[in-house]
Amino acid sequence: MTVRPDVRLDERPMRPVRCLRCGVEVLVRKASWEQTSIQWSTSAMAGCADPPPDGYSTCPALLESIGVAAAKGEIEVGT
Description:
Elements: H1 8-11, E1 15-18, E2 25-30, E3 36-39, H2 42-47, H3 60-71
Antiparallel strand pairs: 1-2, 2-3
């Protein structure tokens, strides 16, 4: 069985996005307008004004910041 390499991050890498509310920076990749991947660092979790309790979800302010960055073209959004 041949395993294909996963090149999704090569084609659309994660980009830094800073929260407009508290200023923490996370890495973000938007595969589409509906799908967002967020990578939290330890320092971002510690500095977030409303950190995700499960480590996977996110706060509304960061989601809004990601939407603004996407609308401005600062991060690429897949189709």
